Amino acid sequence: MADIFERLIKNYGPIGQYRERAHGYFAFPKLEGEIGSKMKFRGQEMIVWSLNNYLGLANHPEVRKADADASAKYGLALPMGARMMSGNSDLHEQLERELAAFEFKEDAILMNYGYQGIMSAIDALCGRHDVVVYDAECHACIIDALRMIPGHRFVYKHNDVEDCEKQLIRAQALIDKQASGGILVITEGVFGMAGDQGKLKEITALKKKVAFRLLVDDAHGFGTLGKTGAGAGEEQGCQDEIDLYFSTFAKSMASIGAFMAGPRTIIDYIRYNIRSQIFAKSLPMPYVVGNLKRLELIRSKPELKAKLWKNALALQNGLKEKGFDIGKTDSVVTPVYMKGGVEEATAMVMDIRENYKIFCSIVVYPVIPKGHIIYRLIPTSDHTQEEIDLTLKAFSETKAKLDAGRYQSDLIPDMANK
Ligand SMILES: Cc1ncc(COP(=O)(O)O)c(C=O)c1O
């Protein structure tokens, strides 16, 4: 009989296999100090391009004060229990009302985390005869949700509206055959890796041909896109056609938690049927008060979004001028595409960190195809033009070294904490 533990330690998985050389440096690095565009990594100050602190709220004095005051007043215990049983409060309901209004929706429901929240909401929404039609590059939380649901799922090629229509027609045929069920389309407002917006306007136009409901995960659009910061739907002029709008608080809000907004009847249905909230303790009060403050600042300080975009465009235009491929981003997420193996990519990142004092994240095989490297740069409103210029210079110099084969090696550098 095979022992499960024995099998696991024979293969630590695609990234875990590198852990002995990578832990604490390439994986599980520790950024220290106040959150901002500069932080400490292994004792050295670095310009940081890895945090989704888009609007710089993480360390905003009003946010820090609201968090601290709420922690002192309430502690982390209150309220005790799940919302449905004993864990509800006026402030939880106020945050839901304010989020709904911000998204131009009737109602909203809070969730403790984005990942488990959206999974559980999809589980609550979909029955055995329903069909989910979804974008191939949806975030892991959506893909994982689809492994749970009993209904059918048809994937369409990333942001390919023609293929989406094809899958919708297939889904409709299946529903006709079953004589039961409906269609839920799931996509993202902004795809977090490549930075391209979901084609929400074109997808919502398909409602004229096939009846469906649309759920959009707008984790990266919330606060960064649209006139008021309401996200990708507002940006593209189709917010009303999004039936269910979802965002985590982990990005622009620099916090913990998430929400889904939509018609009052459906949000109420979710409220009474979402297992991750019914069977879990509600968000502690400091999170709720802290999130109310963050939302107030997003509404009242449009200059934060303006500064974010000024920085994002300076970074993106600078990279393009220097001949870098930044793909199809039309959000602030800034990918930089290069060619190279995992070993080269890690040597290059090490050079950027140690010699240029720039901290950024890379994505390599098996997350993306072999031989490709993506740097994922996240500008924030905290960054300065000087930091952008230093980063552009570092990228030019290290790219020249990559092209000259200077990072080639058979092993990833051994940088683990010993
Ligand atoms: C698109 C998207 N959806 C959902 C989540 C999960 O949110 P959370 O961190 O609140 O669990 C993330 C990452 O944070 C994300 O990028």
Shape: globular
> DSSP strand (E) fraction?
15-25%
- How many whole angstroms does the radius of gyration measure? 22 Å
How many β-strands, per DSSP? 14
- Stretches where pLDDT is under 50 for at least 5 consecutive residues are none
Structural class: alpha/beta
Number of DSSP helices? 15
**What does the largest sheet look like?**
7 strands, mixed
Task: Give the strand order of the largest sheet, numbering strands 1, 2, ... along the chain.
Answer: 4-10-9-8-7-5-6
- N-to-C span: 35 Å
Bound molecules: pyridoxal-5'-phosphate
Roughly what percent helix? 40-55%
This entry's quaternary arrangement is single chain
Spell out the helices and strands N to C: HHEEEHHEHEHEHEHEHEEHHHHEHEEEH
Describe the structure.
The chain has 15 helices and 14 strands. The chain is of the alpha/beta class and 418 residues long. The strands form three sheets. It has a seven-stranded mixed sheet, sandwiched between helices. It has a four-stranded mixed sheet with strand order 1-2-3-12. Helix 5 packs parallel to helix 6 and helix 14 packs across helix 15. The longest helix has 20 residues. The two termini are 35 Å apart. Bound molecules: pyridoxal-5'-phosphate.
Key structural traits:
four-stranded mixed beta sheet; alpha/beta; binds pyridoxal-5'-phosphate; 418 residues
